[in-house]
Design brief:
The chain has 72 residues and is mainly α. The protein has 3 helices and no strands.
């Protein structure tokens, strides 16, 4: 007995671009987050310190040197 099998036909679906309204809130959120991180790595010490003490400075010390910010 011969069985007849039909080959499946591939279907292609077009990828829909995301609308700007869906991306904008996330882009703003991550942009603000990056600015806050950049502040803590680059400027959180001395006269511009938001938090008192050397805790933040010690936590970001290596990142500060890696990114080229002076701290000594």
């Amino acid at each position: 007995m011969a069985q007849s099998t039909a080959a499946p036909t591939p279907t292609t679906q077009a990828v829909q671009p995301l609308p700007l309204r869906a991306i904008a809130p996330w882009a703003v959120f991550f942009g603000v987050l990056m600015l806050v991180l950049l502040y803590f790595v680059g400027a959180e010490q001395g006269a511009t310190a938001v938090l008192s003490g050397e805790g933040v400075h010690e936590w970001v010390h290596d990142a500060r040197h890696l990114l080229g910010f002076p701290c000594h």
